[in-house]
């Protein structure tokens, strides 16, 4: 296979072996990789429900390996090829179950990747353990890693916080299995792919660790969940898939996706880290004076400004943060937001407005 220029294969599905294709692609050419490799489930005999009906498990040839060594060797091959095409500041996500994820993580580290998080995907509707011989297997694990410890990988922290109702997003994600209209079916009405991932899962992966216009590679494309979500969110994708039936299903699925039409709707929350300003700088510039009285928003608590930039109140003395926390009997407090001063009209104004004035004076921002 001749060398592939990334720009020539953007938003396409390549029907071929992923190791072969990735080794023919440009080096350092993709921003993010999402890999859903074979799990090597080793299921053996067919599973049945209590009524003796068959469970739709994973028995496809692509998930079968003659030994753990063979699986490990294949994992090293595709991961080495993936590392080659990943940009230095890019990142990779790999998903797996207890059958393979520990081996996958070991090999990731052997190849020099730096693990950032492991994410637990808690399935809200898992398949029961019909035999009653083990715990119900209700989760899968995603490993998020960058190319090396110095990689300046993308993490849209504020967007994830906003997506989670202004609460820091945790590493355990509650998301249902792919069901209903989202699940692709063949001509007989059966599942086209046994392990199709839900779009909600890829939405979170792509939103958290890529930017609009980035190139996302999925070397085990399956029915194209990565491509469908990437297209919707204004990212580019490259899919690699060996099975022609999966390729056709993915192609039709992605063609039906309508990308976000308004560019402004693709923007997401970010917070620039602003230069630190001490409360003392507000006093030095005469924006507040020693002896001035500060209040919380409800005027329930008050404190007095001291000459050294600390506060004193009936709750104690210390920094604006410490006294604010003591007034509320809370473990912590953002004093800039909590405390207010009275303006000429006796209206309360946040002291954070004074910090903004100091920033403008010192840093021009």
Structure commentary:
30% of the residues lie in helices and 19% in strands. With 365 residues, it is α/β, with parallel strands linked by helices. Strands 1-8-7-2-3-5-4-6 form an eight-stranded mixed β-sheet, sandwiched between helices. A four-stranded antiparallel β-sheet has the order 9-10-11-12, covered by helices on one side. The two termini are 52 Å apart.
What would a concise description of this structure say?
With 365 residues, the protein is α/β, with parallel strands linked by helices. The protein is built from twelve helices and 14 strands. An eight-stranded mixed β-sheet has the order 1-8-7-2-3-5-4-6, sandwiched between helices.
């Amino acid at each position: 296979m001749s060398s592939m220029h990334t720009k020539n294969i953007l938003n396409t599905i390549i029907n071929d072996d992923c190791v072969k294709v990735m080794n023919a692609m440009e080096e350092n050419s993709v921003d993010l990789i999402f890999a859903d490799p074979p799990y090597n489930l080793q299921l053996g005999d067919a599973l049945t429900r209590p009524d003796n009906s068959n469970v739709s498990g994973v028995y496809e040839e692509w998930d079968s390996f003659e030994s753990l060594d063979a699986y490990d060797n294949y994992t090293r091959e595709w991961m080495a090829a993936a590392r080659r095409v990943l940009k230095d500041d890019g990142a990779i996500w790999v998903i797996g179950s207890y059958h393979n994820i520990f081996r996958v993580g070991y090999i990731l580290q052997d190849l020099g990747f730096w693990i950032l998080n492991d994410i637990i995907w808690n399935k809200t509707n898992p398949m029961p353990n019909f035999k009653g011989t083990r715990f119900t297997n209700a989760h899968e694990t995603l490993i998020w890693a960058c190319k090396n410890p110095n990689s300046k990988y993308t993490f849209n922290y504020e967007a994830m916080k906003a997506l989670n109702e202004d609460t820091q997003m945790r590493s355990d994600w509650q998301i249902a299995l792919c069901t209903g209209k989202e699940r692709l079916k063949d001509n007989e009405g059966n599942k086209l792919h046994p392990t199709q991932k839900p779009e909600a899962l890829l939405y979170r992966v792509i939103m958290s660790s890529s930017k609009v216009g980035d190139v996302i590679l999925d070397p085990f494309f399956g029915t194209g969940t990565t491509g469908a979500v990437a297209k919707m969110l204004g990212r580019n994708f490259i899919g690699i898939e060996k099975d022609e039936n999966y390729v056709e299903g993915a192609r039709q699925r992605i063609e039906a996706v309508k990308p976000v039409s308004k560019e402004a709707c693709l923007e997401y929350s970010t917070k620039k880290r602003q230069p630190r300003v001490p409360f003392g700088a507000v006093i030095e510039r005469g924006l507040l004076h020693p002896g001035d009285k500060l209040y919380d928003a409800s005027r329930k608590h008050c404190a007095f400004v001291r000459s050294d930039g600390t506060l004193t109140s009936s709750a104690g003395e210390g920094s604006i943060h410490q006294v604010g926390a003591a007034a509320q009997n809370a473990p912590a407090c953002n004093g800039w937001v909590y405390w207010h001063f009275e303006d000429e009209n006796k209206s309360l104004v946040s002291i954070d407005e004074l910090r903004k004035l100091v920033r403008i004076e010192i840093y021009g921002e």
